[in-house]
Amino acid sequence: MTTEANKQLVLQYFDCVNRGDGKGIYALLSEDFLFKSMPRHPEWMKYRWGRDEFSAIPELMAQQMKKPLVMTLLGMTAEENRVCAETESWAELNNGRTYDNAYHFIFEIRDGKIAEVREYSCSYTAADVFGNFEENFDDTTDSQGNR
Questions:
Q1: What is the number of other CB atoms lying within 10 angstroms of the CB of residue 41?
Q2: pTM
Q3: Domain 3-136 class?
Q4: Cβ-based neighbour number of residue 105 at 10 Å
Q5: Can you tell me the distance from the alpha carbon of 105 to that of 5, in angstroms, rounded to the nearest whole number?
Q6: Helix (H, G, I), strand (E, B) or coil at 66
């Protein structure tokens, strides 16, 4: 794929995120997809999720939010099979709190699919608003309805 096609794939991904479309996200990911959060601290925020777990996140987050998370793209850079995206998020939670964070994502593209995402963000902000993310969700159903 060209760098422009890779950027379009990443734009499709963010469109799915903003619609809370886990099935749409699932369709964009390779079978061996890996998501890595890249904080230094706390240790429990170093997530490693495969395709099923990662594409289930929009539905799980929707349980805590009044509306889907809005991810605003500030800029993208692409080279070979990598696309880097700078974004900001905003969401209003059911408990009245707001979540806004800044991110840098590195997408690795292979055969027209997203094969890996590395997410750099403010772990303090995420931990302050959500606590231990995985402990807050007892439903581990993926986007296909599997547990």
A1: 10
A2: 0.84
A3: alpha beta
A4: 22
A5: 17
A6: coil
Q: Is the dihedral of CA 44, 39, 76, 68 positive or negative?
A: positive
Length of the chain: 147
DSSP code of 40? S
User: Which of 102, 5, 101, 22 lies closest to 57 in space, CA to CA?
Assistant: 22
Q: What does the pLDDT look like over 61-101, one tens digit per residue?
A: 888 889 878 999 999 999 999 999 999 999 999 999 999 99
Q: What is the 3-state secondary structure (H, E, C) of 16-52?
A: HHHHCCHHHHHHHEEEEEEEEECCCCCHHHCCEECHH
Residue 134 is given by DSSP the state: G
Q: Which residues pair with 76 in a beta bridge?
A: 85
- Digit-coded pLDDT (tens) for 4-62: 999 999 999 999 999 999 999 999 999 999 999 998 777 777 889 999 999 998 888 88
Among 67, 85, 86, 53, smallest CA distance to 18 is for 67
